[in-house]
Specification:
The complex is a heterodimer of chains A (428) and B (313). Chain A is of the alpha/beta class. Chain A is built from 13 helices and 19 strands. Chain A is globular. Classes of the chains: A alpha/beta (428), B alpha/beta (313). The interface between A and B is medium-sized, with 20 and 25 residues.
Chain lengths: 428, 313
């Protein structure tokens, strides 16, 4: 089977490539990149005037299966991923039951295979039942195909357990994905603590509830010489600690979400529960710090923290609504609109943040178009204008704070292992 | 002149002109409650629902009396009798209320923003009777009316609000109201009970009551809840009273014409001693009296009523 992507601007940061070329995928892997390729019987994808890059990877999503299939399934999540331009996603283990050990991992992989859309890589639980008490079978989970471990949604409160996790995971090589939050500081909070929480009378979570845990986890990673990936960084102070860790040789990477670089806690002003997530939308100053960290190259990845919730659950008073927003289908548009078009990151840096780096952190062979790599390709138009309409999402859930936003940048075609799953904006 | 809003959700969004208009209207309602027959027919035929999902005696009774004196039909739904406790969502509550085709809703809710949610989905006017620690607009309006009646003006007045500012909807609404009308507001309490960035609303923060008393024209005490002890906001009631309770000794340094206010219910001996609460400078019961007039005015204006000029009355 041959797929030929013709005439696009091929941008591949892994090999410093930025030129008009054809890309040929044969038997599921990248076979050739050249000025003009003639492959008679190949399926042709027209990329004229478009950007062609290694398939985008969202390393942080919640797919709700098993347990809350009314909100999202592995199949619908994988479909939303394709619609948003992602060829691979990594899903967090906070489902019911929790994804842990080989059983949980195999369940996700089997469901993903049935769906046969975007590739899905499970992240397995750190602690049994995400209770933060004793270790789950991390080694078994990693051996079965997990790409890392996390208790995401909850921090590992005990410093001793976090230390053990960081140590133990070294034998499997995978990173520990840290949701950094000091629960005693954030207790009862529903939004960022600051001027806006004071005006609205809502209980705030101080930015420091994140930053103190980032500092702890980086210190413990240094102690154990392990590997840490800090999820959804939202405060300037956290970036200071990450920068300090990186400079002093600690193996730490980090991600930011589109909502944290696109919105501030002003979005909560109307008690809009679609602006409620954890970590919460922060102040103008912290959003500026997120953008600055993207500009300076301190951030390794953009990840959505895609967190589907039913309309019923979100349609309540702000205090009672669950945390989380969907993000798979708006991430690329927001990254282009708020970062690329604003001059904060180059196109090449954007692709590094959304493909090359996530692949590296997850230990995947994707994230590059080098010959012999998996034939996962995203074709997108950074200038395509469109209006966000959650009713048209492929995701089962609609909880987006970006409804009616006019974005500039959208996926046009998506190829996974040589199979064209999105063509000219239409799912096959 | 007419009040142009559908709802009364808070003082933050009101202009100085709108607040002054409500106070002026309320002024004309003060007299009604002093008549032998205290009922006027302005809301006759209209149904007002008082939905209270949080315990309240003072505010609920004040609203109910105001409604009855305006001849409205009233229904009270309280947390214990409503389906709020049975797990019904706010959305369903709203739909049910809408189906009853009522004319006005007064709502007290522990969740900030709940009245805003109801105002969004309901066609009838919604009056916020307190939403969590967010706002309590009619309380602030009655505080303003009390000061207006006693002092005539707000310009140049120093208003000090003392106690648990962090959890107080009264403090937030009072801050908006007093600052908009030209008074200077100081909030005073232990640092643990001062909300972050409260200075951005234009107030001054003090942790020292004795220092602010001499320059205060109004001392507004807030109820201190003993649950805050368990959450370690302060170490003991004794220590709290020592630093922030108003007693005769502290009051000696106050201006002779200082007004002592309290939204109630009082914790006698905690934030205020009985001799101060019942003393000559206390206007606590005037607040209650003016509360009725303010609520009558708000109900009247939101029902579409107009303030008639004095000569046509």
């Amino acid at each position: 089977m041959k797929t030929l992507i013709k005439g696009g601007r091929v941008v591949d940061p892994s090999q410093d490539l930025d030129q008009i070329s054809d890309v040929l995928i044969e038997d599921g892997v990248v076979a050739q990149i050249a000025g003009s390729i003639d492959a008679g019987d190949a399926t042709v994808v027209d990329a004229n005037g478009l950007v062609v890059c290694p398939g985008l990877i969202d390393m942080h999503v919640h797919l709700r299966e098993p347990g809350r299939e009314d909100e999202e399934t592995i199949a619908t999540g994988a479909r939303a991923a394709i619609a948003g331009g992602f060829t691979s996603i990594a899903c967090m283990p906070n489902t019911e039951p929790v994804i842990e050990g080989d059983e949980g991992v195999k369940f996700v992989l089997a469901k993903a295979q049935d769906a046969n859309l975007a590739r899905v890589y499970p992240v397995a639980a750190i602690s049994k039942g995400l209770k933060g008490e004793t270790l789950a079978e991390i080694g078994t989970a990693m051996k079965a195909g997990a790409v890392g471990v996390s208790d995401d949604g909850r921090p590992v409160e005990s410093s001793a357990l976090m230390r053990r996790t960081l140590e133990y995971v070294k034998m499997s090589g995978g990173p520990v994905f840290a949701h950094c939050e000091d629960l005693s500081l954030s207790a009862g909070g529903v939004m960022n603590e600051g001027r806006m929480s004071t005006l609205l009378g809502l209980k705030g979570m101080p930015p420091e509830s994140e930053s103190v845990m980032v500092a702890r986890d980086i210190m413990l990673t240094g102690l154990t010489r392990s590997r840490l990936h800090v999820c959804h960084v939202s405060t300037g102070r956290s970036f200071s600690f990450i920068k300090d860790g990186k400079t002093s040789g600690v193996d730490v990477t980090c991600e930011v979400t589109p909502h944290h670089f696109a919105l501030t806690d002003e979005a909560v002003r109307t008690y809009d529960t679609n602006a409620k997530m954890n970590p919460p939308l922060r102040s103008e100053r912290d959003m500026g710090a997120v953008r600055q960290a993207l500009r300076s190259g301190l951030v390794d990845a953009i990840a959505t923290d895609h967190a589907p919730h039913s309309t019923e659950e979100k349609d309540q008073e702000f205090n009672s609504a669950p945390f989380g927003v969907v993000g798979l289908e708006t991430a690329l548009g927001l990254a282009c609109t708020c970062l690329y078009h604003e001059g904060i990151v180059s196109l090449s840096a954007l692709i590094r943040l959304m493909s090359t780096n996530p692949a590296g952190i997850l230990g995947l062979t994707q994230g590059t178009l080098k010959q012999g790599s998996p034939g996962d390709v995203t074709v997108f138009d950074p200038d395509r204008e469109w209006t966000v309409d959650p009713a048209r999402f492929q995701s089962k859930s609609r909880n987006s704070p970006f409804s009616d936003w006019k974005l500039k940048g959208r996926a046009v075609s998506v190829i996974v292992g040589g199979r064209v799953l999105l063509r000219d904006g239409e799912l096959s | 002149m007419k009040f142009e809003r559908k709802d009364l959700l808070g003082l933050e969004e009101l202009s100085r002109g709108e607040i002054e208009f409500i106070l002026e209207t309320a002024g004309s309602f003060v007299e009604i409650s002093e008549r032998p027959i205290k009922k006027v027919p302005v809301l006759r035929g209209l149904t007002v629902v008082n939905l209270f999902s949080e315990p309240s005696t003072r505010t609920r009774i004040s609203f109910e009396l105001a409604e009855k004196r305006l001849s409205a039909d009233t229904v009270n739904i309280t947390a214990s009798s409503s389906s709020v406790v049975k797990g019904e969502t706010l959305k369903d509550t709203a739909k049910n209320i809408e189906a009853m085709n009522i004319d006005m809703l007064v709502v007290r809710h522990n969740a900030p923003g709940a009245p805003h949610y109801l105002a969004d989905v309901l066609h009838c006017p919604v009056i916020n009777a307190g939403d969590g620690p967010h706002e309590h607009p009619t309380q602030a309006l009655l505080d303003l009316l009390t000061v207006k009646q006693k002092r005539g003006t707000f310009e140049g007045l120093n208003v000090t609000i003392i106690g648990d500012i962090l959890h107080s909807r009264v403090a937030r609404s009072d801050i908006w109201g007093f600052t908009k009308l030209g008074a200077a507001v100081t909030v005073c309490g232990p640092p643990t009970l001062i909300p972050p960035d409260i200075e951005s609303t234009g107030v001054t923060v003090s942790y020292d009551l004795e220092e602010v008393i001499p320059r205060s024209d109004i001392l507004m005490l807030l109820r201190i809840q003993t649950e805050r002890l368990k959450e370690c906001f302060f170490p003991s009631i004794r220590e709290y009273s020592d630093f922030f309770g108003l007693d005769s000794a502290k009051l000696e340094r106050a201006k002779p014409d200082v007004l002592i206010m309290h939204p109630g219910p009082l914790n006698r001996g905690v934030e205020i001693t009985p001799e101060v609460a019942d003393g000559p400078r206390s206007v606590i019961l005037d607040q209650v009296r003016y509360g009725l007039a303010v609520r009558m005015a708000v109900l009247y204006l939101l029902s579409g009523g107009e303030l008639k000029s004095e000569d046509s009355d």
